Amino acid sequence: MSDTASGDPISDANAALAILAVDPSLGCVLRAWPGPFRDRWLGLLASAFPPGAVRRVPATVGESRLLGGLDLAATLKAGRPVAERGLLAEADGGVLVIASAERMPPTIAAQLSTVLDTGVRVLERDGFADVAPARIGVVALDESEGDEAMPAPLAERLALRVWIAGMPLREAERLTLDAAAVEAARTRVAEVRVPEPILSALAEAAAALGIASLRPPVAAVRAARAAAALAGRDAAAAEDAAIAARLVLAPVATVLPAPPDAEESPPPPPEEQSETPPERESTKLDEAEIVLAAAAAAIPPGLLAALAAGATMRMRSEGRAGAKKLGTRRGRPAGVLAGDPVRGARLSVIDTLRAAAPWQRLRMRATPSAGRVQVRRDDFRIRRFAERTRSLTIFAVDASGSTALARLAETKGAVELLLAESYVRRDQVALIAFRGTEASVLLPPTGALARARRALAQLPGGGATPLAAAIDTAALLADASQKRGLAPSVVLLTDGKANVARDGSMDRAKAEADALAAAQSARGLRALLIDTSPRPQQSGRRLAEAMAATYLPLPAADASALSRAVKAAK
Amino acid sequence: MPTFPFSAIVGQDELRLALQIAAVDQGVGGVLALGDRGTGKSTAVRALAALLPKMRVVVGCRFGCDPADPRALCWECAARIAGGGALKAQQTTVPVIDLPLGATEDRVVGALDLERALAHGERAYEPGLLARANRGFLYIDEVNLLEDHLVDLLLDVAASGENVVEREGLSVRHPARFVLVGSGNPEEGELRPQLLDRFGLSVEVRTPTELAVRIEVVRRRDAYDRDPAGFCEAWRREDDKLRRRIATARTRLASVAVADSVLERAARLCIALGTDGLRGELTLVRASRALAALEGEDTVGDAQMRALAAPSLRHRLRRNPLDETGSTARVERAVAEVLGG
Question: Which domain range does residue A172 map to?
C-alpha cells in the first residue's frame, strides 16, 4: 500500500465517532479487537449521550429480551399477564452496541433491520400486541475471522465503517471527541443543506465504486450533513462529502473506480431535468472527482488486494453471510405439547400459564393459601424443536483438460440434476472446481441454488488435474460445515487422472500417490465418486475405494441412477 | 414519522404496478417482491396503506366483518343477526398488517385470552394477526427467512380464507381473507415452492443502474429524511390522485369485459409455458382486468396481458426451479409467440 492510498485510521475513527454522535441513526460497524482501543472509542461515544443511553447487547440476545414479551416474574406476582418492554423499546433515542455481531442469528438481525428501517418496534408475542417507538442507533462490533461475517441485511443498514484493528496501543490517546462541537452540531444538523452538486457527487461516487444498493449513497448524504454541522457550516461542502465517501462508500466498494483519463470524455452528465445552470457543470464534476478520489483512497487494503486478484468481493461476502445464517438454523420451534421440562426440554411459560389459567378459580377454592397463580404439573407445556440438521452437498467438479469439454458439459448436466434434487429437499450446496494447479471454492455453502447454477454455468474448462488439492479442499470444507451443524456429503466428479501433486509439481506418479493419500485421509466423509471418463477407469475405482466412497461411472448415471446414488451416500 | 409517499417512489415500475393491481382487485392473490437489497421494496409496500380506499366494517367486530357480505361473517356477527339485532357499519382504513419475523404462533392465529382466563376463569379467544389482517393486507418482510411452521400455517389460511384455531381447549374459526405481500432477497435463502405459488404476482426488483435515477432516489430520500411531514405534504396531491384512481378502478372492475379470445390467448400462453395448474391463467386474466380498469379501458386487450404476463407467470414455471433469471426471458418469448412480437 502506498502512503497516499492509506489514510490515517485514527482520524477516520475520530470523524466517524463525531458523526455517529451527531446522527446515531446512521449506525456503525466497528472492526476492532476487544481491548483499550475499542473501549476508548466506545467510552467516548457513551460520553456524548446521557448515562445509560448507550447499552451493550450480546449478539445472541433472545427474541423475547430484544422485542419484549411476557415478564414471567411480574406475571406470576400480579396474577395477570405483565409485559416486558424489551431492549429495543427501552433503548429508544439511544445506541445499542452489539458485541460479536458476526454471531448474530439471521432472524434476530432481520428484526433489528426492520426496526432500523421503521423506527418502531412491533411486538406480536406471548399474547401481547404493542407498538413502541424505537429510534435507535446500532454499533456492531465486528470481530469476525476467516469466513465469518455479520448478517448482510444488518451490515447493509449500518452506514459508517471504522477499522481500528491492529493499531499500536500508544495511538489510543489520539482518539478524541469534542463534546462541545457535537452538542453544537446536533442543534444545527437539521438546518444544514446538502447542495445539489454534493448530493449527485455522492450518488455518482457510489455508482463508480460499484455499490449497487442505494442505501450507502443515501446514508453518505446524511453523513456529509453531520460532518458539515460539526465543521460549523450551513451547507455541506466538498470536504464533508469526502469524509462521508471515505467512511460510508469506500468500505463497501466492489470495484476500483477507473482512473481519471484526460483523453476520454468525462462521465456523461445526468440527463435529468436539472435546474443546475450549465456553468456550474464544471464545479459539479470537480466535486465528483474530489469525492471519488477520497473514497478511492480510503478503500481498505484487503479489498484492494482482492480486487486486484479479480475476486468479486460482493459475491463472496454474500456467500459467507448465507452460509452462516443457515448454519444456525438447527432446531426450529415446532409447536408445544404437554410434558415435563426434563432433559433439556424448554418450558413454554406462556403456554403453561394458558393451560393453568382456566383452573385458577377451582384451585383457589380448593387450596386458597397456595399463592396467586397455581400451576400444577399437568399444566406444563414444553416447546418442541424439530432438530433437523441441514444436509450440505459439496460438489467437487473436475474442470481439467483431461475431462474433455463435452464431458464437462455432461458433468455440469449431472450436477444440475443433483442441484434440482437439493432444491426439493431444501438442502444446501457448495461448489468446488479444480483445474490447473489448484482447487477453489466457487461457492461456499448456500441455500441459494440459483447462484450455484450460475457459478456452474460460468465454470471454465482446461488445464491439469490437481486431484489431491480437490479432495483436501472438499474435506476441509466438510469439516468446517460439520462444526456449524450441517451434515455434509461430498460428490466428487472426476475422471481420476491426477497429474498435479500437492506441492504443485506436474509429476503424474506423485500426483496419483498424493490423490490416494488425500482420499485415505478423507475416509470419514460420506462421499460419492462419479467417474466422468468416457470408459470407466481403474484409477477412479481405486480412488473411490480409498475414500470409502460410493463409485458410479457417469455413462451409467442417468437422472434416476444419480439421484439414487446420492441418496445412498447420505 | 409519516411513511414515505407511494407516488414519490422512483422507478420500480413493475412493483408499483403489481401493488396497485392488488389494491384494485384483492382476488388477484398477493404480491411477492424479490430482489436486491436497498431498492426500496419494503418502502413501496408500507406506502401502499395510504393509497387504499376506506372500507365498511361492522362496528365493534374484532374481525372487521363486511356488513354487506352475510356469507363471510364471523360467529359473533352471525349471532347478533340471529338474535334479531342489526349490524351497524362504519368506515375504516384497510389494514396493512406487518407480520414480524419474531412473531409467535399464538399471536399469529390468536390464542386463549390469558388475562380473562387468570382473572375470571373464562375461556375466551383473543384474536391474532390473521384476524386483524382480514379483508386487508398481510406483509412479511424477509419472507424467505420466516420459520417453517409459520409458513405452513399461513399456507393453510391463505388457501381457505379461514383461520381455524384448535388449541388450549379453544375451538374457533373466523374469516381471514387477506392479500399476502412478501419481500425478500433470494440470495439469503430460497422460498418454499408451495409458498411461491400462493402469490398471485411475482416481481423482480433490481437496483436502478441509470445514474440520473439513482441521484433522484438519493435526492428524494434526503428531502424526506430532513422533513418527513413537509415531504409528505408536497406529495399528498399525487397520492390523492392515485387513491382516487384506485377507487374508480374498483367500481369499474365488474364492468370491464373479458372476451373469450382473451381467455383463449391466456390459456395458450400458459400451455406454451407449461405452467402447473390453472392458477397462472386465472391470475393473468384477473390482473389484466384490474389493469384495464385502472387504465380506464372497457375491455381487456393484449396490452394488459403483455404487461402482466411476466409477473403473473414467471414464478409458476416449474420445469427448472433453479433458473430464476431465465424464467422472465421464457415468459417474454412465449408472449412474443402467442400474442405476436
Answer: 9-194
Query: CB-hemisphere CA count at 13 Å for A312?
Result: 9
Q: In chain B, which residues have their Cβ closer than 8 Å to the Cβ of A387?
A: none
Say yes or no for a CB contact (<8 Å) between B218 and A122: no
Co-location of B198 and B271 in the same domain: no
- Note whether ipTM > 0.90 here: no
Does A485 lie in the same domain as A341? no
In a domain, B238, yes or no: no
Closest CB to B186: pick one of A106, A119, A448: A448
Q: Do B142 and A117 touch (CB under 8 A)?
A: no
Q: Are A335 and B105 in contact (CB under 8 A)?
A: yes
Structural domain including B201 reads 6-54+93-205
CA distance A529 to A490: 8
Which residues in A397-433 are b (16+ Cβ under 10 Å) and which e?
A: bbbbebbeeebbebbbebbbbbbbbbbeebbbbbbbb
Q: Return d(Cα A218, Cα A237) in angstroms, integer.
A: 16
Does residue B70 lie in a domain region? Answer: no
Taking contacts as CB-CB distances below 8 angstroms, the residues of chain B near A126 are: 104, 106-107
Tell me, what CATH number does B201's domain have?
3.40.50.300
Which residues in chain B touch residue A386, judged by CB atoms under 8 angstroms apart?
148
pLDDT in tens, chain B (341 residues): 688 999 999 988 999 999 999 999 988 888 999 888 778 888 898 898 888 888 888 888 888 888 888 888 888 888 888 888 888 888 888 888 888 777 778 888 888 777 777 777 777 888 888 999 999 999 988 888 787 778 778 878 887 889 988 877 788 889 999 999 998 887 776 677 667 777 889 998 888 888 899 999 999 999 998 889 999 999 999 999 999 999 999 999 999 999 999 999 999 988 888 876 788 889 999 999 999 999 999 999 989 999 999 999 888 876 554 554 467 888 888 888 888 75
**Rounded to an integer, what distance in angstroms lies between the CA atom of residue A37 and that of residue A166?**
9
The CA-CA-CA angle for residues A442, A443, A444, to 5°, reads 125
B26 shares its domain with B164: yes
Residues B65-76: b if buried by 16+ CB within 10 A, e if exposed: bbbeeeebbbee
